[in-house]
Task: structure prediction
Amino acid sequence: MGAGTEPDGSSRSDEEWERFLRESVAGAADAPKEPSARARDVAKRLRAEPDRAPEGWRSYTPARPKRRRGWYVVGLLASLVLLVVALAPGRVVDLFAGDEPDSPSPTAETARPSQAPPAGAAQRPTRDEPFRGSPAASWASGAAGITVPKAGAVGWMSAAEVERALARSRDFLVASGLDREVLRGERPEKAIALINPHQTDIQHFLKTAFRTPSEQNDPLLLFSRFQPSRAELVGDVVKTRGRLTYREGERGALQVTADVTFVYPVTRADAGGDDDEIVRTIVRRELVLSWDDPDKVITEPGTFSIVSNKYDLTNGGCGTPTGYFTPPFGTDRRADEAGTEVDPYDRSAPVGRGESFGEECRRATRS
Result:
């Protein structure tokens, strides 16, 4: 059979044969085509979800805009702030001025400062804010203002024993200068219990000072007390600032030095109004305590011996010792006007006075 011969024996022309070959190579126009991978995938999903329209691979659906709740919250807060300012403008001003009694205390004192705290605006203290206008307004309250260092082994004591001794040393400062009953004139039994009962000179002092106070035997040398019939504390807070330090003393003893300033706001005992005069009695104490080795010194467990004590006092009274601080009110302030001026908040210099008050009065440049 020839190349151009049909099965029935008929023959094709050369033009028809060339067209046949071209269509065989290019494919007929109506010949079925193999579907692409994308088409097969779409067809499969249509069969699975016949009611859902196909999604284009480049299609994009914009996200719904979020509700602008942030501006609503900001507006509400701003309205509340304006309401507070309108109702209590003085409290807001004092808060930003740093005179609020509950404002955060400054960094704890871990070393002697290089200068006195800066002077602020002169503001009269009130019963609600007895430390107003004073550097003590930003000091810590009570025992929180007394910094206790990290303990390490010293002499005959391990680190744990030193830690306990430091805690008891601070307990003495609390019992002698912050206990409410002692401040109201009671005998400081808790503080006395921490003193070595075998220290003869101190025990003689304690027996005499509360019975017959004198310059040499005055309970105010170690304890803070006010006479209830003359003065009363304002509020429940005493401001403090100071620290404990320690080193090895004689015969391997642990020697603890306390340097703490106490600020007591007081008023007349018979006062009863919001306009009552408020005076701040300020005393800075430096005590050196010795926790002795019981194998070398006669002592009792949990007690210390007093090596020395110094103090600075302002607005605490002058004249014959009575065993109580006697804050000057009204015309009594004139007795202090001739005294030596001292800044009671300046802790940059050493404590200046010895173991008795003496006859010299000191006038506070600020209180």
Remarks:
- The radius of gyration is 44 Å.
- The CA atoms of residues 219 and 267 lie 22 Å apart.
- Residues 131-364 form one domain.
- Confidence is low (pLDDT under 50) at residues 53-66, 88-105, 354-359.
